[in-house]
Amino acid sequence: TTTTNFTLTVLSVNDKPSFTLTPATVTTLEDTAFTLPNFATNILAGPTNESSQTVTFTVTTGNTNLYQVKPAISTAGTLTFTPKLNQTGTDTVTVKALDNGGTARGGTNGSPTQTFTVVVTATNDPPVIKGLTNKSFNEDTTTNLVFTVSDVDGAVASITIAASSSDTALIPNANIVPGVSGTNRVLAVTPATNANGTPAVITVVATDSSGVTTTTNFTLTVLSVNDKPS
Fold it and tell me: How far apart are CA 215 and CA 192, in angstroms?
């Protein structure tokens, strides 16, 4: 016999990462930031000998107009996104995992893609009141306060206005009269006869056709005016 020796070195080849997405569909209300821990689970860089590698996710959206902040998945598997204001709809999102093991010697650092669906559903927004500010006016006169209302979810004609006074001796509730339907509104306010003094806080409530309300407050100061003697 004769004997010879040589060495064989087995070189590492990066294996593709893997992960699981649960659930297949995530649903949230419009105008609401969304967070879901453990959305991506079973996150593996490859076999056990590649466990020191880091896995990150690339996330691609199909409906970019749906988001203020696009979907992202953290290394821990948490899904986050924020829908665009007053935007609703559906999107198919594509996810791929990438590890940092490289592609030398034909290795693979990317997983097969997986998809999930984002559904953003509508919620009724409250109406908006603009234009009412603190004001002073003379006693024994009526002041007309012009303001606007709007509602992204429905017709402004359906919005009703109610108003009340914190000092009904100065400004009785019955003397605060809303008028005009549509975007432009008016509050006609008349103080009690010969009344003046400490400002009254006026509370205005706008209610849409679904019963959703918004409230604003401002102050009215009734200034004294000298009356003639008799």
Answer: 24
How many angstroms separate the CA atoms of 99 and 17, rounded? 6
- As given in the structure block, the two tokens for residue 216 are 């604003």
Token reading at 11: 């070189």
Beta-strand relationship, 213-223 and 135-138: parallel
Pick from 203, 192, 197, 129: which is nearest to 166 by CA? 203
- Structure confidence by residue, pLDDT tens digits, 176-196: 999 888 999 999 999 999 999
| 200 CB-side CA count, 13 A | 27
* Structure confidence by residue, pLDDT tens digits, 61-107: 999 999 999 999 999 999 999 999 999 999 999 999 999 999 999 99
pTM: 0.74
